[in-house]
Design brief:
The chain is of the alpha/beta class and 383 residues long. Helices cover 31% and strands 25% of the residues.
Amino acid sequence: MRNLISELAKHTEIERPEPEAVVTLPDGGHSGSMSGERSCRAVLQRFANVPAELLRWLWPGRVPLGMLTVLSGNPGGGKTFVVADLVARITTGREFPDGPNGNGPCDVLFMNLEDHVRVTQKPRLVAAGADVDRVVRVECLEVTAPDGAVSNLSFHAGTAAESIRSAAQQLENLRLVVIDPLAALLAQCRSNDAGDVREALAPLVAVAEELGIAIVLVHHNRKGSGTHASERMSGSLQIGATVRMVWEFFRDDDDDERRLFLPGKNSNARDCGGLAFRVVDSDVPLSDAGDFVGRVEWESGTVAMSADEAADRQRDAEGGDSFPVEWLRDFIGTATVAATEARAEARKQGISEKQLRNARKALKIKPEKSSFAGGWSWSLPTD
């Protein structure tokens, strides 16, 4: 996958200013010097030459243009229904639940990588009131070689940015890209590895800025609750570090039918508060059993609670923070990993040695040695 990403990245030209300094690093120089003398140029950019730009919004205060936003939560939190509602408002120009929509009708690239297109995806979009003529999906990325040979590539981390660029060229006014779920996009990389995740998301960061579009990634939270949005999301903390906005979904403790859409991370603007909604029946049939497709019904006003506060309440109710346990279970999976590797990755996730030790005990992991001189390894019990 890394080779494919590198190859596709060649299509993006980067304007490099003339170098303003030349340094020579001799043998025995600072860390990073090579053997012999090597001429190195620091490519500088003066901030005086950087044009300032105003932040632009798709959904004011909630989903910025030119950046990545994550919608994350546990199953049943209402994420996909809110996504369908957002798509409907972008394609029709309808007002947002908390204010005006200044976009006008725009096109949406809707990449739901798991749900059935005809049974689930289209009925939800119709129930939400979307203009489905403005909603498209990528069936594949068609690549033509110099000799005329054509190959069809699936939509994944290595092809996503080029697929989005191609879609933007074919559409009148692409403004929103939805990728649901993020885990499916990252299927070909190690989602717990910060380097792999950074490399996979970098092309999306670049294409969002290049095209001035909003990219919304739908993601799952871990079974447990961390103290911060980045800890609660499945996979590497790099996901939370890369995106600019995170919105999380929770069930109301006092009303199981009420869902909360709360701010988890906001790197761009003043906190505008959370929102509350319910999933109600639409008039679109769901099945031959007589039930109907759900749609979002927003409450008026805002919710004065952050995702961290909601997670704290949830953690207190469940009796503690299970993030280290869930992370270690996900990290090991069905493999056998070196204890040193697990400790190093845990530190990157902000997990202390004590938390890791307690997580290992909770999962009943017994360290084993392959040989007298070999290191310790960990694996999950099979029984």
